[in-house]
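Entry for the shared binder. Reason: the reviewer on the internal report wants the predicted structure included alongside the sequence.
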Amino acid sequence: MMLPYGRQSISEEDIEAVTAILRGDWLTTGPAVAAFETAISELTGGHRVVSCTSGTAALHIAYASLGVGPGDEVVTTPMTFVATASCAAMLGAKVVFADVDEATALIDPAAVSAVVGDTSSTSSDSSATRPASRSPTKGRGTRRSTSTA
């Protein structure tokens, strides 16, 4: 049996909204994008929101805004979209792979521990990618990030 990748729920209202944009003067920017960003900002407690053209673009912006770059290592699993690693590599970070847990298919904390040294700081979250916190005694070259994407 084949498991579906995802099931979409697209209503007539969704189709009408897309059609209205396609018939309008603003395809990729404009009032609909501003309204979308405002609505997401309100849902997230007023945090600033920037929409992106793809998950890859969003991940690249997120890594760049966190200062990921040369001297950093990003720990991720090879069982993810290529952008998880390629965005870090494009910014000059070293990508280190850790295996997944057979029972959960998520990144295995033991595998992460095996590739992260004693002098490295890490941060792991099952629902997000975020940078490791920096210790005052640890330099930029020892910071590692873990990704569970």
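Summary line for the report: Helices lie at 12-23, 31-43, 55-65, 82-90, 109-115.
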